[in-house]
Amino acid sequence: MTRRVDLHGDIGEILVSEDEIQSKVVELGRRISVDYAERQLTLVSVLKGSLPFMADLMRAISIPVRIDLMEVSSYGGTATESSGLVRILKDLSATIEGDDVLIVEDIIDTGLTLNYLIRYLRGKNPATLRICTLLDKPARRLVDIPVDYIGFTIPDQFVVGYGLDYGEVYRNLRFVGVLKPEVYSEPA
After folding, report:
1. C-beta neighbour count of 9 within 10 angstroms
2. What is the C-alpha separation between 171 and 27, in angstroms, rounded?
3. pLDDT score recorded for residue 187
């Protein structure tokens, strides 16, 4: 990225405010706590984008949780479209065999990466495997994926903030905003 980044000036509109995110995280935490009452849950964060959501969500859950991290990639550099080729860059650090597992995602777009990840994790024999995403973008879905917990359904716009990036920037915004098209359409 050669242009100067303007964290707030590059945002065309705020799609989901910080207050809306925090309220939804509390709601999701309550639902998950009820659904998994009397059970121990393993949360699997898909790095890097879901890290802020995972951190807030685990604090909103009132039952015992374990956490683990995976990093997968289907994007490269400043790409705005998935390549379709999924690579595991960091695998789980502990076994999930027999565990109740909840995949924590920042956004579900085409579903290609998550579909691959679900198949991969099912091969590790968890007792249950469910999905929680902060953002769902169904207009771009190429694979049907049952999502158990959805924070917000959003339109087909390129969003950043609250963990979501463009060129590894904008993750630290406390809201989810629509990136101005001129930011990602300029030649690098």
Report:
1. 10
2. 23
3. 61
Q: 74-102: buried (b, 16+ CB within 10 Å) or exposed (e) per residue?
A: beeeeeeebeeebeeeeebeeebeebbbb
Cβ atoms < 10 Å from Cβ of 159: 25
Look up the pTM and report it. Answer: 0.90
Residue 54 CA neighbour count, 13 Å, CB half? 25
Q: How far apart are the first and last CA of the chain?
A: 6
Whether 148 sits among the annotated catalytic residues: the reply is no
Per-residue buried b or exposed e for 27-63, using 16+ beta carbons within 10 Å of the residue's own CB = ebbeebeeebeeeebbbbbbbbbbbbbbebbbebbee
Residue 65 pLDDT > 90, yes or no?
A: yes
Distance from C-alpha of 77 to C-alpha of 153, rounded to nearest angstrom = 26
Identify the structural domains of the chain with CATH numbers, from first to last. 18-153 (3.40.50.2020)
Query: CA nearest 44: which of 105, 90, 87, 3?
Result: 105
Q: Which of 10, 100, 109, 136 is catalytic?
A: 109
Q: What 3-state DSSP class applies to 182? A: helix
Residue 184 neighbours by CB under 8 Å, 6+ apart = 78, 80, 158, 166
